[in-house]
Amino acid sequence: MAAATHRPSAKKRERKLAVKPIEKQSSLASLIIAHEIDVPGAILVAILVASAMGSTTATKMVKLSYETSPGSNLYDKGWDDAYFVGFWVLAFTFLRAAVMRYVFTPFAKAYGADTPAKQLRFAEQGWSFAFYSIFWSLGMYVMYNSPHWFNPAEYWVGYPHILISGWMKWYYLAQIGFWIQQFYVLHIEKRRKDHYAMLSHHVITFALLVSSYCVNFTRIGNAVLCCMDFADILLPLAKILNYLNLRTICDIAFGLFAVGWLVTRHILFTIIIWSTAFDPPKYMDMLWEPEKGKYFTPTTQKIYLGLFLLLDLIILFWFAMILRVIIKVLTGNAASDTRSDSEDSGDEDDKQQ
After folding, report:
1. Domains of the chain: total
2. Are residues 195 and 296 in the same domain?
3. Is residue 250 part of a domain?
4. 214-267: per-residue pLDDT in tens?
5. Which is deepest, 101, 193, 280, 323, by most CB within 10 Å?
6. Closest CA to 318 of 335, 304, 338, 333
7. Are 315 and 265 within 8 A, CB to CB?
8. CA pair distance 125, 185, nearest whole angstrom
9. Which Gene Ontology molecular-function terms are recorded (predicted)?
10. Where among 38, 63, 88 does a domain terminate?
11. How far apart are CA 155 and CA 163, in angstroms?
């Protein structure tokens, strides 16, 4: 009799768990997510076809604008660059959804991520790992072929740096498109405990990217992106290994991530902040002359230092979380992401059944 009364209760609970993820999303959000491959994909195809047929607007979306002369590989900047950024916002939305669905989710199912929640997280982290691996490598290539390769003085020498290489321009505008698209991603992924810190980080990063491009500070922007992107390769890798239940390798990857974070975000980024605070007067006149492409004054300097320091505070907040995980590992526990809510809460409910 007791078993008979318990069984309907269990079924009722299962139904409740089954609809729980759906209830968290509005019908509009669910509709957008359901079509985040086909709608952007169709628009991208239309743009490519229109460009091939000679449409000026479509061509601006798929090719860099303002080349100084054919074959020079030197580019100016202007409002038409917004078309290119818009194309990459769509492209990253399409690529993220397609790669997650058709590459990382099947891989997760085949290699040990045994619940839908884990498979989704695996796919999200797989996309992050792929993106940052490519763009960190590209950013380092751009910096290696530029005067500012591990030389902060070159951020300021010869300012304003109005003309930039094709690779620098493509890299910078694609990064701007990615960070615009990240605002969308931030609101469709499951909300983490540090949601507002992440949102603040996105806003500051976007402001720095757009403003540095417009005021001819792409060299220092390139260096900052390289500092930030490196750790974002290793953290998704550690999470991927965790979802595959490769605990020992996961802990090693997390240790490498912690070291990489310390070196790039707390040492190299501090060198960039120091250079911004003390180097500009040594190499430039710091006058406001927009007609000459000069926008860096003592006031501008204070604004950038303020944004850098705000970014550094958020990074320190996250580093405190990293230290908590390191302490857990050193005391014999497996590494886990303290940033997340119980992202596998569905799995925990399953275990309780």
Report:
1. 2
2. yes
3. yes
4. 999 999 999 999 999 999 999 999 999 999 888 889 989 999 999 999 999 999
5. 280
6. 338
7. yes
8. 12
9. sphingosine N-acyltransferase activity
10. 63
11. 14
This prediction's pTM: 0.86
Per the structure, the complete domain to which residue 103 belongs is given by 64-352
| pLDDT tens digits along 63-110 | 999 999 999 999 999 999 999 999 999 999 999 999 999 999 999 999
Q: Do 166 and 91 share a domain, yes or no?
A: yes
Q: Say how far apart CA 51 and CA 41 lie, in whole Å.
A: 15
- Shared domain for 43 and 101, answered yes or no, is no
pLDDT score, position 21: 41
Cα separation of 25 and 33, whole Å?
A: 10
Tokens of 340: 């997340």
Residue 3 included in any domain: no
The SS3 call for residue 294 is strand
Residue 278 forms part of a structural domain: yes
Whether residues 177 and 207 share a domain: the answer is yes
- 81, 303 Cβ separation under 8 angstroms: no
Residues 73, 88, single domain; the answer is yes
Give the residue from 14, 48, 63 where a domain finishes: 63
> How does 155-193 read in b/e, with b if 16+ C-beta sit within 10 Å?
bbbebbbebbbebbbbbbbbbbbbbbbbeebeeeebebe
Cβ partners under 8 Å of residue 14, min gap 6 = 353
Asked if the peptide bond before residue 8 counts as cis, ω within 30 degrees of 0, the response is no
Looking at the fold, whether 38 and 69 belong to one and the same domain comes out as no
50 & 151 share domain: no
95 and 48 in one domain?
A: no
